[in-house]
Amino acid sequence: MQDYSEILGLAAGLVLSGDADLAEIVGLSLQVSLTATALACLIGLPLGALVATTRFPGRGAVLVTLNALMGLPPVVVGLFVYLHLSRAGPLGFLGLLYTPTAMIIAQTILITPIVAALSRQVLEDLHAEYSEQFRSFCLNKTQVIGAVLWDGRYALLTVALAGFGRAVAEVGAVMIVGGNIDHLTRVMTTAIALETSKGELALALALGIVLMVLALGVNAAVHGVRATAARQAYA
Questions:
Q1: What does the pLDDT average to over 57-62?
Q2: Is the Cα torsion angle 75, 86, 164, 208 positive or negative in sign?
Q3: Backbone angles phi, psi at 55, to 5 degrees
Q4: CB 11 within 8 A of CB 173
Q5: Which candidate, 87, 45, 39, 48, places its Cα nearest to that of 67?
Q6: What is the mean pLDDT of the chain?
Q7: How far apart are CA 215 and CA 226, in angstroms?
Q8: 3, 48, 75, 80: which has the fewest C-beta neighbours closer than 10 Å?
């Protein structure tokens, strides 16, 4: 059994040398998570803006549902996607199970409610602040949504970064629908789980280091976006 200092040294060596397997896993993780985040933003931001700027019967139930879906269990989402993409499922003919596309679908389902709910909170405050101006300019619903999305762009970037952070750290759903297949669907979180179970702690720790650096980077980006927004607000 290797001691901790030896494992740490090997892990650092893998990271600093740009190990091919490590780079492949990290690259696929970023591809899947960034694509899922982009899709979730395309769906969630307009949805959040629509709910924020519209009053309709049952709106309270929609808000409760959105907030509840923020806590969707990843394994349940993975099972849901698996059942739909398996051979016996309604989308089995597409042959997407155990592919990066299936992982993207699962992550998109997971983070879309997060993006929608957080953006709704941000944009509802903006809409309340500018509602009188919107009415005086006789803007239609599409124009109002476009205006609040643009005015809240810095805060919404923070929302997108939060969604990415959630996606890149996901393990349960992507394990179920991706299968953790080497050189095909193995991402950082699933590789860490596998390598740890095999006792290959150096690669697992190297991936953990990269994952932590990404998490710190996302948090630093969120802080920078908030600081920029604050400076512009007082400019």
A1: 88
A2: positive
A3: -110, 125
A4: no
A5: 48
A6: 87
A7: 17
A8: 3
CA 143 – CA 119 distance, rounded (Å)? 17
| Two structure tokens written together for 126 | 């903006």
Residue 72: what are its φ and ψ, rounded to 5°?
A: -55, 125
Structure tokens at 95: 């042959």
CATH 1.10.3720.10 fits 21-234, yes or no: yes
Confidence (pTM): 0.87
Q: State phi, psi for 119 to the nearest 5 degrees.
A: -70, -35
* Closest residue by Cα to residue 83 from 109, 114, 65: 109
Task: Return the number of other C-beta atoms located less than 10 Å from residue 107's C-beta.
Answer: 30
Residue 86 DSSP class = S
Per-residue confidence (pLDDT) for residue 107, from 0 to 100: 96
Of 220, 210, 160, 213, give the one whose Cα is nearest residue 189: 210
* Token pair belonging to 204: 């697992």
DSSP 96-137: -TTSHHHHHHHHHHHHHHHHHHHHHHHHHHHHHHHHHHHHHT
**DSSP class of 93:** G
d(CA 125, CA 139) in angstroms, rounded, equals: 18
Evaluate whether 96 touches 85 at the Cβ level (below 8 Å).
Answer: yes
Per-domain boundaries in the chain: 21-234
Helix and strand element counts for the chain (H, E) = 10, 0
**What are the residues whose beta carbons fall under 8 Å from the beta carbon of 195, sequence distance 6 or more?**
201, 203, 204, 207
Q: Compute the residue count for the chain.
A: 235
Residue indicated by tokens 């903006």: 126
Beta carbons of 46 and 231 less than 8 angstroms apart: no
Q: Evaluate whether 226 touches 234 at the Cβ level (below 8 Å).
A: no
